[in-house]
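2024-03-11 09:14:02 INFO queue: dequeued item Alpha/beta hydrolase, len=261
2024-03-11 09:14:02 INFO validating residues
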Amino acid sequence: MGISLTAPDGTELVAEVTGSGPPVVFVHGSNGGLDSWADIGDRLTGHQVVRYARRNHPPSGTGPAPNSFAVEAGDLQSVLDTVGRAHVVGGSYGATVALHAALADAGRIASLALFEPPLLQSGPRLAPIIEQYQRLYVTVRYADALELFLRDAARMPAELIAQGAPIPDDPVAAMSALADLEAMAGDTDDVGRWGGIDVPVLLMQGGLSWPPLPEGMDLLAAALPRAQRVIWPDQSHFATATAPELVAAALQTFLDSLVGS
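2024-03-11 09:14:37 INFO prediction written
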């Protein structure tokens, strides 16, 4: 079932709701959308699955610039206001959104499950990257802008970029990535602040992910008071796409362990 809701600033958010039971809200990463968590969500049993497209990612609306994690955390809280207290699952950038929402107000969050938030890739060092990105964007060099995002913001190794699918020359994808880049630039890389989150947390990661993702996960595991961790040695930052069965099984085990708690 598709639903629409309105964020506090009037931006329209679109969500897909399936199943029944305690709700689980999925928050996708950069250049994702409604289908990002579909394969994993379909594998869960005993839960209502809620997947929404973040602002600046169709079919949700475009929000005002610059984007920020505070605004996106408010979007997630709007989803939770609609579906009720829920478990929240976030991947990559979406995991950072989930952390911000939980730190601001965890009243409607029963637990967090986080896959590799890029915590050490945020901060003011991204300001010159945004300037370069915007120059590429306004000169209609969308593929070059997206490559810049992957290389200098996500810090993806050049060999992985070369081995991956062709980067699309897509203005919508470039706009979405710019919004995420704005939020990352306006944030800090202070991992210790997340120690104020006092809900059960599952941390998921791939053993083959590139630096500084593993280092950020080590710091996050040390900061969170109620965290447990699973690492798949032969997976990378793309595990949610390449090994959905592993991710779904870890989520199911984690969620089942919280029944009655």
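2024-03-11 09:14:37 INFO annotate: Residues 124-184 form one domain.
2024-03-11 09:14:38 INFO item closed
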